[in-house]
Automatic annotation (TrEMBL):
It comes from Arabidopsis arenosa (Sand rock-cress). This is ADP,ATP carrier protein. InterPro entries: ADP_ATP_car_bac_type (IPR004667). The keyword Lipoprotein does not apply. The chain crosses the membrane at residues 113-130, 150-168, 180-200, 232-258, 270-292, 312-335, 356-382, 402-421, 433-456, 462-484, 534-563. NCBIfam families: AAA (TIGR00769). It is found in: Membrane; Plastid, Chloroplast membrane. The keyword Lyase does not apply. GO terms for cellular component: chloroplast membrane.
Length: 618
């Protein structure tokens, strides 16, 4: 007879147990029942599933030596197994209590994934409203135009982003993760509520219109962009806060929290699906923006319809912000954190400059930064030109805002579809291919947009047959370019980027994420704006510089693809190391049962029994 019970964690007994030997030795009657009856035995395989075997029955009349009886109780420990097993009395069933599942997913996992999906929904619902509103404010305001955007991103947005990163790095060293989350998100909620109900109604009083007009008359129209920032400074502040919501709340707070409570396997399966709920938010928020845009037309004369719409939309933003805080509190209270490898390299506390030097010295972080900066520059090279065409086609705030609502809805639908395909891409082709799709899509669609602008003349008859002017056609093609680029970013680029943070140690993860997402994101947009400013000053207009912008776009995308390839190898190496560390930790936690000299069968020493145990598979 040989019954082997495979398990992971078997407690070792002392060499000479005191008081336990008598308890562990079965009585004569129990011995007889054990060795003369068919009993089921439980075996746990390495994958954690139950396998039921049976003790071989001993026919009557066949004697069994004490040695063979002792060998039947030898346990085989399997280091690679997962979970602990318990054998219950009764002989009927002996099972390991498994976590309940819904639709094949463990309830514990759903308690993380569902709230995270709702958080992402609320965050992107707000971001869509804020993104559309900020463009309407700064582009359609009196004394301003789309040309303000490059100056705004370079001279206002970037410095504020750098200042926030420095402050966030300091706070991350002194605050807990929970306190840091609330400290960052609450000022955003308060500001957007105050803007809708206090700052915008008083904009005529707090904007220096007269001073801006005098300076413009003195300095000339070439300073219209910088002077517009001063003229509508509260709108520009709203623009920057809306931009920071996308980089801080979406990238740093949400994805940092998601990386904290999810495992790599869960991330590969569910990160692409987070965007499904988020892009449903894009669809509904786009409809919300368009509803309020059309509502202004139905208000009576003398009523500031945009102020009424702004109050309603900012109320929604505040409500969604409070919902985000509640979901964060609930997850921290009721969801257990996953077990991470304990052998992470411990980093010392570093100051701001030391942190920046450390991040710059890391090839891994540099490649991640290249991805983010390259995306910002590439999308900005096309987006500003498109928005200038958009204002020319839709000069009024009502029409501009309504078009942006339709744009957000189409972006949500396209991204939702891409999200459904992204899980297949990750599963079939892996991280590397998924990371290279976004730059490829952006390059192809960007070439199509610039080609229509450069060679619009030959396409004019065809466009006329479609009932459009060349300007309207450029607006639609630019919209398609932005829709496809953003859908690829949300469904593939962002999940790839966030997966890359998971195998890093906590210090690199927190400070590196702050530096990349808060600084590199606006740095990419500001870099694109600087390139555009330089091209306009050099070649006289944006149209004259379009061929050169296409060449620059090609070079940036090439560097983007090279960084993605380099990061792929480093990511796979780190993941292999982390899996190896976890296996070693599980192996080191297994203890082989020790049989004392007194418990050894007559005539055999402990070492002889150990040798025989080894030969039987221990």
């Amino acid at each position: 007879m040989e019954g082997l019970i495979q398990t992971r964690g078997i407690l070792s007994l002392p060499a000479k147990p005191i008081g336990a030997r008598r308890l562990l030795q079965p009585s004569h009657g129990l011995k007889q029942r054990l060795f003369t009856t068919n009993l089921p035995a439980l075996s746990l395989s390495s994958n954690g599933h139950n396998k039921f075997q049976a003790f071989q029955s001993i026919p009557h009349g066949i004697s069994v030596s004490h040695k063979e009886r002792s060998r039947g109780f030898i346990c085989k420990a399997e280091a690679a197994a997962a979970g602990d097993g318990n054998v219950f009395d009764g002989g009927d069933t002996a099972a390991i209590s498994a976590s309940p599942k819904i639709f094949g997913v463990e309830v514990t996992t759903l308690k993380k994934i569902v709230p995270l999906g709702l958080m992402f929904f609320c965050i992107l619902f707000n971001y869509t409203i804020l993104r559309d509103t900020k463009d309407v404010l700064v582009v359609t305001a009196k004394g301003s135009s789309a040309e303000i955007i490059p100056f705004l991103k370079t001279w206002v947005n970037l410095p504020m982003a750098i200042g926030f990163m420095l402050l966030y790095t300091k706070l991350s060293n002194v605050l807990s993760k929970k306190a840091l989350f609330y400290t960052v998100i609450v000022p955003f909620i308060v500001y957007f509520g105050a803007f809708g109900f206090v700052m915008y109604p008083l904009s005529n009083l707090i904007h220096p219109e007269a001073l801006a007009d005098k300076l413009l008359a003195t300095l000339g129209p070439r300073f219209m962009g910088p002077l517009a920032i001063m003229r509508i400074w509260s709108f520009c502040l709203f623009y920057v806060m809306a931009e920071l919501w996308g980089s801080v709340v979406v990238s740093v707070l949400f994805w940092g929290f998601a990386n904290q409570i999810t495992t790599v396997d869960e991330a590969k399966k569910f990160y692409p699906l987070f965007g499904l709920g988020a892009n449903v938010a894009l669809i509904f928020s786009g409809r919300t923006v368009k509803y309020f845009s059309n509502m202004r037309k139905n208000l009576g004369p003398g009523v500031d319809g945009w102020a009424v719409s702004l109050k309603a939309m900012m109320s929604i933003v505040v409500g969604m912000g409070l919902a985000i805080c509640f979901l964060y509190w609930w997850v921290n209270r009721y969801v257990p954190l996953p077990t991470r490898s304990k052998k992470k390299k411990v980093k010392p506390q570093m100051g701001t400059m030391e942190s920046l030097k450390f991040l710059v010295s890391s090839p891994y972080i540099r490649d991640l930064a290249t991805l983010v900066v390259a995306y910002g520059i590439s999308i900005n090279l096309v987006e500003v030109t498109w928005k200038s065409k958009l204002k020319a086609q839709f000069p009024s705030p009502n029409e501009y805002s309504a078009f942006m609502g339709d744009f957000s809805t189409c972006t949500g639908i396209a991204t939702f579809t891409m999200m459904l395909l992204s899980q297949y891409v990750f599963k079939k082709y892996g991280w590397g291919v998924a990371a290279k799709i976004t730059p490829t899509v952006l390059l192809l669609t960007g070439v199509a947009f610039f080609s229509l602008i450069l060679f619009g003349g030959p396409f004019a008859p065809l466009v006329a047959k479609l009932g459009m002017t060349p300007l309207l056609a450029a607006v639609y093609v630019g919209a398609l370019q932005n829709i496809f680029s953003k859908s690829a970013k949300y469904s593939l680029f962002d999940p790839c980027k966030e997966m890359a943070y998971i195998p890093l140690d906590e210090d690199t993860k927190v400070k590196g994420k702050a530096a990349i997402d808060v600084v590199c994101n606006p740095l990419g947009k500001s870099g694109g704006a600087l390139i555009q400013q330089f091209m306009i000053l050099t070649f006289g207009s944006l149209a004259n510089s379009t061929p050169y912008l296409g060449i620059i776009l090609l070079g940036i995308v090439t560097a983007w693809l090279a960084a993605a390839k380099s990061l792929e190898g480093q990511f796979n190496t780190l993941m292999s190391e982390e899996e190896l560390e976890k296996e070693m930790e599980r192996a080191s936690s297994v203890k082989i049962p020790v049989v004392s000299q007194e418990d050894a069968p007559p005539g055999e020493s402990t070492s002889q029994l150990s040798e025989k145990s080894t030969s039987t598979g221990i």
